[in-house]
Structure prediction request, 202 residues.
Amino acid sequence: MIVGLTGGIATGKSTVTSMLRELGAYVVDADVWARKVVEKGSPGLAGIVQAFGPGILQGDGTLNRAALGQIVFQDAEARQRLNDITHPKVRDGMRQETAAYLEKHPDTPIVWDVPLLFEGETRNLVDVTILVYIPEEVQRMRLMSRDGLSEEDANRRISAQMPIEEKRALATYVIDNSGSLDNTREQVTRIWSKLCKEAALQ
Ligand SMILES: CC(C)(COP(=O)(O)OP(=O)(O)OC[C@H]1O[C@@H](n2cnc3c(N)ncnc32)[C@H](O)[C@@H]1O)[C@@H](O)C(=O)NCCC(=O)NCCS
Ligand SMILES: Nc1ncnc2c1ncn2[C@@H]1O[C@H](COP(=O)(O)OP(=O)(O)OP(=O)(O)O)[C@@H](O)[C@H]1O
Prediction:
């Protein structure tokens, strides 16, 4: 059973995945793969240089993430170009990692942490979905304070994704992360034990 975990930017996916890991879950992280597929010397990075020009590299030949972020978070067409280069590679990597895990643990759910689960095609590859939810005002505040962003930059990043209320309507389970961490942990524990039982019965 593949469990797709998603949320909006800064709604608490990492917070929830560390709780899931404490409960023994294996988590495949799309952001980790998104970094791996654009490492120095990778075909992914070559594709980005072709699309955005060599100015997108730092002096040492690695990707200048801040510069690329400045471009793609305010330009939907550029964002699409970047997604078309990276997303298929990210999905391939996640599938490989998953196959290796499920071969050894066939009766255990595996979690895919995918920020853009509902925006892209990955939703078709998972069996159930969990949304880490907070209202957009709280999301903006947490994003600004965690990343030191201006309100304008925070709004740009939030607008680059499907609105959280729309995601809410699509999810199998919703974890409300606007309260205390203990409250979130209780919800995570409840959902995880239900999923473990279901996976064992499959
Ligand atoms: C644009 C990039 C270089 C900015 O890097 P930066 O280090 O500033 O941000 P980071 O990668 O940590 O992403 C932070 C969050 O931004 C959001 N985000 C990232 N990419 C996108 C995107 N293409 N569209 C919408 N939101 C995005 C996600 O919520 C993500 O968790 C980077 O995000 C990237 O390569 N994005 C393309 C790959 C991608 O879509 N990753 C997200 C899931 S696979
Ligand atoms: N229940 C909570 N109460 C208060 N602050 C929280 C809570 N949960 C998470 N946070 C804080 O909110 C911020 C965003 O959380 P986190 O980094 O887990 O989000 P994320 O969804 O993984 O972000 P991204 O989309 O950028 O990967 C962090 O600074 C985190 O410490």
Remarks:
- The chain has nine helices and five strands.
- The chain has a mean pLDDT of 96.
- The first strand starts at residue 2 and ends at 7.
- The CA atoms of residues 117 and 124 lie 9 Å apart.
